[in-house]
Amino acid sequence: MSEHARPASTGPANKATDTCGHCACSASATAIDPQPAAADGDIRLHIPRMDCAVEEQEIRALLADIEGIRRLDFRLAERTLTVDASEETVGRVASRLRDAGFPNERLDATPDAAPTLADSLRKPLMALACALAAELVHLLLPDTRVFSLLGMGLAALAIALAGLGTYRNGLRALRAGKLNMNALMGIAVTGAFLIGQWPEAAMVMALYALAELIEARSVDRARDAVRTLLDLAPVQAAVEQPDGSWLDTPVAAVPPGARVRVRPGSRIPVDGVVEAGQSAVNQSPVTGESLPVDKTAGDTVFAGTINETGLLDIRVTRAARDTTLARIIHAVEQAQATKAPTQRFVDRFAAVYTPLVFAGALAVALLAPLVLGMAWMEAIYTALVLLVIACPCALVLSTPVTIVSGLASAARKGVLIKGGSHLEAAAGLRAVALDKTGTLTEGRPQLVTHEIMPGASADDALRRAALLAGHSDHPVSQAIAAGLPATATAAADAAAERYTALPGRGVAATIDGREWVLGNHRLIEERGLCSPALEQRLRVHEAQGRTLTLLADTERVHALFAVADRMRARSAEAVAALKSEGVVPVVLSGDNADTVRSIAAEAGIEDARGDLLPEDKLAAIDALRSRYGACAMAGDGINDAPALARADIGIAMGGAGTDTAMEAADIVIMNDDLLRIPDVIRLSRRTRAVLWQNIALAIGIKAVFMVLALRGDASMWMAVFADMGASLIVVANGLRLSRY
């Protein structure tokens, strides 16, 4: 099986990408170990307070005058900044960020303990208690100067406890010329306090801080959905020492070439090749396969998979940061940094929506008293309510959380989707072009059947075929040797003389004093051994796309062997599933047209095209797109690369251990299971449905409260509940995909 070789991008990671788009997430994400480690010179910093484009722009401005920075890569979804610079320069970067109010820590260092939920809740709950006390003072105590000052003091304390971070982030946003939730909330709370609504201002800020914390925890759950994969690989490995003993060693320090021992029931810590032992290995964490796979000497194993039954000694082939599992995690992290079309639309909409509502709030405050005769205080209060409603947090959150959940769900099933745009685009697929060899079929020839000619001895024929095939390294001969009955293989002796390879035809040898050949149809014709009856038998097999090999002596043919590339066990089921989704399956192959049609018919595909060169596949993809619409191409070979690039989505089969496919494809099916293609289409359509549900919920709730505010029926705390409630609803709705 050849590797999919579409050229991979070699450029730096996407820069300045606002995958979250959220303007109010608090610092609750914990530091994580880098997987894989950054390139030499790259150091990753975890910055908990960097969660939207405003903070990114401010950080860029802060670091602009520091010499020695070669590159800055922002990952807002992870709250990380990768700095390509020297150690000394990175130290200056970290210090500058801390001085500006951006605490940070290096991800290659031992992270500080993450704050507990109780620690995070302490200040918001204290602020809520002060706000309630201010409200009680306002409602229950006489309206005297002393009690008013007491209530205002309690309100101010509540605002300080809950809102210092909000004011700080809001001021940064205003200095950058941006309007985010922090800026809008700061203006609204300050305005309410100044017009005498200090109990409500305090309550709004306390509720906002509490809701923001809950929301941030929910968002972090979505962001960390893929990171659960990190727990699959153990942090220690039993490594063989020069004296033959075994020492537990950190996995990150285990070099390629080392020998590692894995006990039954343990997870395999590294990628490697089995040198001793045999066991059943559960590969579902990496490939999504539902059943354990038997492993013995010479077989490949992957980090994160589970050794179930036997002791295995493994020779390490990749460092920890380069394992298949690490590359999957890294690829999905990169995928989170790319924006789907719906997300880009939402971001553009939000960029217009917020300033418009802000302008509308100003108009209400300034013009409503003059034009509509509204009281000034009432107009200002209505404008402040509109400011709270103006932030599009729920709308902006609705897309990245959904996309990340979909990507995580696919990754856990052994499907690597290389970006939200591909996840969303799969919903629109109307045709899928499938390569034959290695995609529809298993990609290796197998003995399908054999026939003993009349008058020939079955035992002698099979024994001699086994002897001849066993001396050849040709794939067809190897398939015959592997497929013959064990009794024939055991009976094969070494009494062959003058063994000769016949290039393009077969093999020959002298056995028991007679010359025997095991070769193709052409060789038998050249020897004049074909008969009308034999030709008829050959045509029957050839019509089914089988490769024929015949055993003959100098006088006649004794047996024929039919070899074919067998269809994968679930290919027909996958084709039926594609059809049920309204997707047309087509076979595009460079193999013999008769063979292609035979395999396609067996799989239930009507449109099958063989004898195609790479440029023919390109033309076929163009024709399919013209006829049906969006088209995917699924294949595994180098000859498929042009068509994979031309199709709307390129799908590589067999990504486990296949570096080229992992790097180049839009979607990688890790375990060669064609059923994953209709699964991806269904997941994509569910993702798109959830995206639009979230958009409708976010806009609908905003619209309802905007109308209520303009009618004077909405208060500021109701607006906070509406905004944060909508955010929590869309986050919860998006997280449903992680369980799909």
Summary of the model, kept short:
This protein is of the alpha+beta class and 740 residues long. The chain has five domains: 42-106, 2-Layer Sandwich (Alpha-Beta Plaits); 117-224 and 335-390 and 688-739, no CATH class; 234-321, Calcium-transporting ATPase, cytoplasmic transduction domain A, CATH 2.70.150; 404-441 and 569-685, 3-Layer(aba) Sandwich (Rossmann fold), CATH 3.40.50; 442-567, Calcium-transporting ATPase, cytoplasmic domain N (3-Layer(aba) Sandwich). It contains 25 helices and 26 strands.
Q: Please give the radius of gyration in angstroms.
A: 34 Å
Whole-number mean pLDDT: 79
**Tally of domains:** 5
% residues in beta strands? 15-25%
Biggest β-sheet, characterized? 7 strands, mixed
| Secondary structure: helix percent | 40-55%
List segments where confidence is low: pLDDT < 50 over at least 5 consecutive residues. 1-40, 109-113
Shape summary: elongated
Number of helices: 25
Sheet with the most strands: spatial strand order: 14-26-25-24-15-22-23
Count of DSSP strands? 26
Query: Which structural class should the secondary elements be placed in?
Result: alpha+beta
N-C termini distance: 32 Å
Structure description:
With 740 residues, the chain is α+β, with helices and mostly antiparallel strands. The chain has 5 domains: 42-106, Alpha-Beta Plaits (2-Layer Sandwich), CATH 3.30.70; 117-224 and 335-390 and 688-739, no CATH class; 234-321, Distorted Sandwich (Calcium-transporting ATPase, cytoplasmic transduction domain A), CATH 2.70.150.10; 404-441 and 569-685, Rossmann fold (3-Layer(aba) Sandwich), CATH 3.40.50.1000; 442-567, Calcium-transporting ATPase, cytoplasmic domain N (3-Layer(aba) Sandwich). The chain has 25 helices and 26 strands. Strands 14-26-25-24-15-22-23 form a 7-stranded mixed β-sheet, sandwiched between helices. A hairpin with a 4-residue loop joins strand 2 and strand 3. Helix 14 (458-470) packs across helix 15. The radius of gyration is 34 Å and the shape is elongated. Residues 1-40 and 109-113 have low confidence and may be disordered.
